[in-house]
Write a structure and sequence with these properties.
heterodimer, A: about 525 residues, 10-stranded mixed sheet, 6-stranded mixed sheet, 8 helices, about 15% helix, disordered C terminus, B: mainly alpha, two-stranded antiparallel ribbon, 2 strands, about 0% strand
Amino acid sequence: MKRRITFIQPPNAPFSPDQAVLTPDALSVTNLDAVREERLTVSYDELPDDIRTVIDQYQAVHIRWATEQSHKAPAPLASRISSGLHVFVSGEKRAEGEDALCPLLKRMFGEEVDCLSTEKSFIEPPILSKRFSSTADLYYYSVLSFATPLVDYIKDNICAKLPRWSDSSYDCIELASSLFADTFDISYDGISHVLTVSAVSSRAPGDGEWSQRVAKPEGNGNGGREGIDQVEVGLLTTEKAAEAEDIKMGGLLGVVGRDEKLKPTMFSFPSRHHALPDDATYLASFSHPKGLHPTMTLSLSPSALKEPPAPADATCALHTYLTLPSSIFGDKYQLSTTDPLFLQSHNLAALRAVFGETDLEAPDWAVDRWGSNWLLELATPENLDAVTSEWNVTIPLHLRYLPPSESGYRTIRVPWPVVFWACTAEGGTKMGINPFDRVNLGWEGLFGPRTMFYQVHPSDEDVYLYEKVTVPVLQLDEKEGLFRSKTIELGTVAVIVLGFLWVLLKLGLVSSSSGKKSKQGKTE
Amino acid sequence: MAVSIFTSPPLIITLSLALRVTLLIYGSWQDAVSPVKYTDIDYLVFTDAARYVSQGLSPYSRDTYRYTPLLAWLLVPTTWNVAGFSLFSFGKVLFAAADVVAGWLVAKCLRTHYGMDTGRAMKFACVWLLNPMVANISTRGSSEGLLGVLVAGVLWAALSRRVVVAGMLLGLGVHFKIYPFVYGVSILWWLGASTSSKDSDKDKGSNGKEKTIPQSITGFITPSRILLTLTALTTFLALNITMYTLYGNPFLQHTYLHHLTRIDHRHNFSPYSTLLYLASVDGGNGYGYRFESLAFIPQILLSVVVIPVVLAKRDLAGAMLAQTFAFVGFNKVCTSQYFLWYLIFLPFYLPNSSLLKKPQLGLLVAALWVIAQALWLHQGFRLEFLGISSFVPGLFLAGLFFYVVNCWILGILIQDAGGLSAQEQVAK
């Protein structure tokens, strides 16, 4: 098991050498203003049995989660996903045994994860290129607000098995708690048989500055199943790179317990994901009144509309990628139109991809799959200077019928989509080794492997990265209300029967009358 | 009534054509300049399906295509470009033309079989021909216009004793939209009344004695009834077997089975709407007695059995109107396009109706129908566009009220078609 901790400071952030002190036993950081990435690399043998049983069934498993709280994501950790839990699996081996993934997800993330089985609840993203493997075969999403269930799961199932009050137990709890982050990724690759867990937090809990003691590994060389073999630390900051596609980083690196002091370093690498300037933002909202056909509005700041500083030969387009739970959906026929008037009126350019549950009629209770994903290319103004305030993109959506409730309403949560520029160059840069690369996010696999992405930041005007939509439903108060299911049932039947009898009565009157004369041929 | 210039057939036909041409041109203009389209969404479904068919694919490759492949075939020209000019609107022209032919058939029947003079016949045919709702629906590209001409054709063929033609059109109509099967029963019953005028008296028995059951059955089986049944069934089956051979299960599933298995949980004019919402949740588990599964009983009993038996021999068109009215009013799902189904019969019904003879009654009927619609639409708007939970009591009561109004109107239709109202008048 290897641990890597990286603190990434904003460019020009103050740093004095006494903020990071390396001793033979530990590294201590104090009051560091940085984004922290905790990364743990675990070999297959070190995994708990129930996790092994599940990942044995697949070639690759990626579980990702992002918080619903607004947070920063600077380079080189700029890529974003919609808030919630995302599960990608590839190369399903339909061997023996029943589907173990959904039960494991429920154990790890709680009953909020409404997953029936991979067959029923997962959707199949389109595979654009067989060679490029960053598209999963099956994908599942769930609105999951907190990482707490996972942290509890690790504490109860992994940390609790370690000797109590030991350093390894303490490390385990500390590592588990690092999952209270902005985003975490758990990735298993069946070829290298390695599971990596990485958690990124843009600010420390409390005052936002990191003060932490990272001890040298206890389990050094004991070859046991648990315990950490190596702890790597890095204190880095991004600098201006020579090439547009590169990210250059400089700072200090060291291995705790091995190195005597932190070594200065400077390196650069081509990066798939880049961050746009801080003022390139978007805000997602639903226009009022929402009704059964709510319209999602994305308000983009003028800076978000500027073409990113991609290599000169690249073609760039602004995109949004929607993750819609099954209760809300788009009409793929409406959105895939090429009618310029419709597209212009919404500031859309084209629907590039859609997959998942797109049934236009089914109510939510008749739908098993979790929902749908939509990749839309957005229109940008022809004359940028003319845009002084914001640029609004609107996406017409529809609600499914939801089960009755006592109040007559139900609230659904729709995560904000991600918004980014995708730039493709003819030759393109081969994405080489990037210690912070992130693939298999759902949306990036819909582009070629050499595409570069420039993330537009969610506006921090809003604290939460999701919108609540109130769905009107049948109001049923079975205890006190006038309208219970019985009232509706008996009321309908009574009225239908009375109407039916009335019509029969009229027919009876006609039948019993002697007026048999056919009106056919009767003249006026 | 003399043929006035205002009711001369060429003028009315020209006017009705002009109305449709104007709407077609206006529609193309609105489609070209506004993001809100004049063209009906269904038309895009039809034309998409026609494109699939033209590429040798199944029309059911298009989601929500729930019609016979005949429709997609008919619209294949919409995928053509002739001399750089797209024939996309071909279908709308076809539907609008079908409308006018339907209206012309109505006028023909009124003249030939209702003994009206040309002017009066044209005047009542205008209820269909110059009806803006009819012209609007077909020029927006809804296929209901095709159904109008089929149903008018069935009535015309029956009244002019073209039994084979009536059977074929009926078979085609049922293949197209299922519901016209109810007319088969009326025509069968009516054919008995007409083959010999004594038939109807025979039912009671010639000596006032009731006939025995075998006698009734053998009496009921007449050559024209057999002919109608056979031609209708043959047409219907031949079409279905052909389509099934070509397109297999998707054809059966989307054209017919879908209508049996659909849940119709969405709000609509049907009195069952709220109950169906309730019942479809969770497969209806835990919700009561499942009355909705019996909903077909009053609907089928009225529109297939009682109305034809009581009314068909007295007034075929009147019976067909009452059947359609009952079928729509008692249906588990009801949308505004269904209203077009009975509109085609109004020109036959109105001339002798108590609605025209007693204008106050006519106005009251019209007002109540409109009020019931308005009440429902208001609740529907609150739900659909304002997001207010108006299922209960709003939509629930509005749906039931609309049903009650429909039953009351149906009662009047039945009285009129059965000649009761006429007798009342005579008695006065």
